């Protein structure tokens, strides 16, 4: 039987969610509860009450083979609601964590489960700090009531399979005990427990809490600020990019001898990574015309194209702008055993968005920690992350710009934006130095490569990738 919903509450819920939609507030409603607790009936009643135009129901099944090929939080990043929309998460990253832990699933985990728990906390905090409203509900029913629900399912020939599925899951893990740990944590995003012994009361409590929290958010919404200060230093002088770029060179003959050997070894590395199911994330940042695209091209020259993806990052689309800035990159993270190249990346938040004023001061300042947390979660899910910054001097950049303008087949590479960025050279230099200082970690290191000589830069990058991957593969072989 359907749950009878108080019409006044349903109307008020509709009003408040429409206000949230008009204010572009993304909402995530998490509904957890033990099997046969009644959560599906409550979740469906809620889903039926919300406007279908901006509501999505995300049902998290137990992890399948395809899920085990991606980072732990991948499917939740993938399903983030856009601004103004609502996601109902029926079972969430909490259920997934419990299943991974109790079934001892380590297929895409390179750490202990405490670290994965911390990744979940960071994920929620990152979303909250970027305007997401997260409401967490635990549907509570005592064991006797759940047993009665299960018996009803067993007695129904059409639904008997569902009871068997529930019981199979209950035999393998203790959901209640694991969830109690999370319910007892003192966090900024606490759980609301909903007692399902009376389904109408349960629905009223659920609706009332959502209305209360969304009203609080709507009424406390801060005024839109225009604070977009990049906070740059007058007459900035770099302490990082002081090496003599003209000294780092490699002769053409030596380059032609070394490059094919490194490319062949890179192909072998690709197959070894695939065998060990280790994902490789390669990020390329640097000054305009520093040779990022050419560097990537030489690295992937002999690779099997079925095992890598080259992501050339342009300005975000309207859809991407309506999501968290990491969303468009999280969707492209390679699955286990594959390689993802990123020609420019999520670091746009602290580079071009900071310099050009596309991000508010608070947004780009908090992004350093958010990016570190995100990269740590990729590392914890088994990924190798290597970040290259290709550095060239201003005179060399000018020569390359002029060459592009004067070479018909290269003219497409030079734009008015490139010349405008050049005028902000000092700002980009300071932003780049801050970025590297604040996001250079043991699990996702930056490698600064002098790029005045393209051949030197290509060889250096290839050698770096091979060396780091060989170390990781040796560790993997020891564990066998």
From TrEMBL:
Pfam families: PPK2. Residues 8-217, 250-471 form the Polyphosphate kinase-2-related domain. InterPro entries: P-loop_NTPase, PPK2-related. PANTHER family: POLYPHOSPHATE:AMP PHOSPHOTRANSFERASE, POLYPHOSPHATE:AMP PHOSPHOTRANSFERASE-RELATED. This is Polyphosphate:AMP phosphotransferase. It comes from Jeotgalicoccus aerolatus. The lineage of its organism: Bacteria, Bacillati, Bacillota, Bacilli, Bacillales.
